[in-house]
């Protein structure tokens, strides 16, 4: 079963006027994983799709949705998958790819059949991002052994973290989709600080591995007009191109960043110093 949500893009001047309820309605994606269901959010930010797939008793087929007006989901799209649960497998046109937790799979446009399954009693949780694609690139599995890994941050700023660049152009060929996974070390809580924007790309953040009873404050908005959202475990937030995307938790956690837009230059960022934020 596939459930689809739709989100319009917002002008930054309008977003300044949103109260807490409206900010959450426009940008927060709360329920990504439900047993034996595919949950998708179709966004008008670069026509990006964010979704969660939780196969328990059966395999789940990623079928096309009405917004795409295509016979198959990937006729004009590419897909990135990162497993954040138990061991699972993705079957792409008959070829099986097993994914452990924090392993990724890229599927290029043109794939017809994409099936998601769990392998044991602990169900897989497949977090997916999808963007329009103008060219086919081959399907490729990426583990941490294949990833480009960067260590950033300092203990004194509470932002020591490991960035695992999984589906980026230095690791796998894509049209515009990029995804990676950042892990905050114990005692560190700040991500993407100093903050930045990039007018050439939108982004989505998915937070997971958060300790029970804890929360994450995700900061968004124009650098001089910031807002915040409190998130729980396994929730995501859409980040427009004009918005910062930064967060701080009451304990350490991991998060997946995914983006699409004008270019594939990971370093294309407009940095905002911490003391410039308002």
From TrEMBL:
Catalytic activity reported: 5-dehydro-4-deoxy-D-glucuronate = 3-deoxy-D-glycero-2,5-hexodiulosonate
Family matches, as HAMAP family: KduI (MF_00687)
Keywords: Isomerase, Metal-binding, Zinc
Binding residues for Zn(2+): 196, 198, 203, 245
Regions that span the bilayer: none
Family: Belongs to the KduI family.
Top EC class, one word: isomerase
Gene symbol of the encoding locus: kduI
Enzyme Commission number(s) from the entry: 5.3.1.17
Domain of life, per lineage: Bacteria
Protein name according to UniProt: 4-deoxy-L-threo-5-hexosulose-uronate ketol-isomerase
GO MF annotation, one: 4-deoxy-L-threo-5-hexosulose-uronate ketol-isomerase activity
Pathway: Glycan metabolism; pectin degradation; 2-dehydro-3-deoxy-D-gluconate from pectin: step 4/5
Entry note: cofactor: Binds 1 zinc ion per subunit.
Matches recorded under CDD domains: cupin_KduI_C, cupin_KduI_N
Function: Catalyzes the isomerization of 5-dehydro-4-deoxy-D-glucuronate to 3-deoxy-D-glycero-2,5-hexodiulosonate.
Cofactor(s) it depends on: Zn(2+)
Gene Ontology biological-process annotations: D-galacturonate catabolic process; D-glucuronate catabolic process; pectin catabolic process
Species name: Flavobacterium profundi
């Amino acid at each position: 079963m596939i459930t689809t949500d739709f989100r319009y893009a917002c002008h930054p001047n309008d977003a300044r006027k949103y109260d807490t309820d409206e900010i959450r309605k426009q940008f927060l994606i709360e329920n990504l994983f439900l047993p034996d269901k595919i949950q998708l959010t179709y966004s008008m930010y670069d026509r990006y799709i964010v979704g969660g797939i939780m196969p328990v008793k059966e395999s789940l087929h990623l079928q096309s949705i009405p917004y795409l007006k295509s016979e198959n989901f990937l006729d004009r799209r590419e897909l990135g998958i990162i497993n954040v649960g138990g061991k699972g497998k993705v079957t792409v046109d008959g070829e099986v790819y097993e994914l452990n937790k924090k392993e990724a799979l890229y599927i290029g446009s043109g794939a017809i059949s994409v099936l998601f399954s769990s392998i044991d009693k602990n169900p897989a949780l497949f977090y997916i991002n999808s963007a329009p694609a103008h060219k086919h690139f081959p399907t490729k599995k990426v583990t941490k052994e294949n990833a480009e890994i960067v260590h950033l941050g300092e203990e004194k700023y509470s932002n020591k973290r490991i960035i695992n660049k999984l589906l980026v152009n230095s690791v796998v060929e894509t049209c515009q989709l990029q995804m990676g996974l950042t892990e905050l070390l114990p005692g560190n809580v700040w991500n993407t600080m100093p903050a930045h924007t990039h007018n050439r790309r939108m982004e989505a953040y998915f937070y997971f591995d958060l300790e029970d009873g804890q929360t994450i404050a995700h900061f968004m908005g124009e650098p001089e007009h910031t807002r915040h959202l409190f998130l729980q475990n396994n929730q995501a937030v859409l980040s427009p191109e004009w918005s910062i995307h930064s967060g701080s938790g009451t304990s350490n956690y991991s998060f997946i960043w995914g983006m699409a837009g004008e270019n594939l230059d990971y370093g294309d960022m407009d940095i905002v110093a911490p003391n410039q934020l308002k």
